[in-house]
Amino acid sequence: MGTENEEELYKRQQMDERLRVQEQTRQQQEALAKFREAEAARKAAEDAAKKSSMVADPAAGGVSWPDNEVQAAPQTGMDKVAGALRVGQAGDVAFARDLLNSGQAPLGGVAKPEQAADGAKESPAGSRAAKPALGLG
Predict the structure, then answer these.
(1) What pTM did the predictor assign?
(2) Using one digit for the tens of pLDDT, what is the confidence trace for 10-38?
(3) Cα dist. 105→47, 113, 114, 123 in Å?
């Protein structure tokens, strides 16, 4: 073997190597702990961003009938005149109101003309065209 000095030197080198490995392991564990904390904070921020984008704040939204139950602006005298003349947005509103309250069947519900006994498309008395649902007829 070697002398006592060589054995002592070898033991010190082994101890120094063990201490160096322990210090390196401790530094790696600290770095890993910091990384995990940063990763957890990043995931929490992402979850908060996802959660805020998934749930809408009803007070922050714009006009989205019927969810926000936005009331129509009261009509002024000019709106009433424009509605009677069927001009602009007030005219569109009046037209839609009249269509809804007219009681007419929609165009898809118009009856087909009856066929005559001989296979003709119109009866001998002639067919009367159904009144369109748009109030134009």
Answers:
(1) 0.33
(2) 999 999 999 999 999 999 999 999 999 99
(3) 51, 16, 18, 23
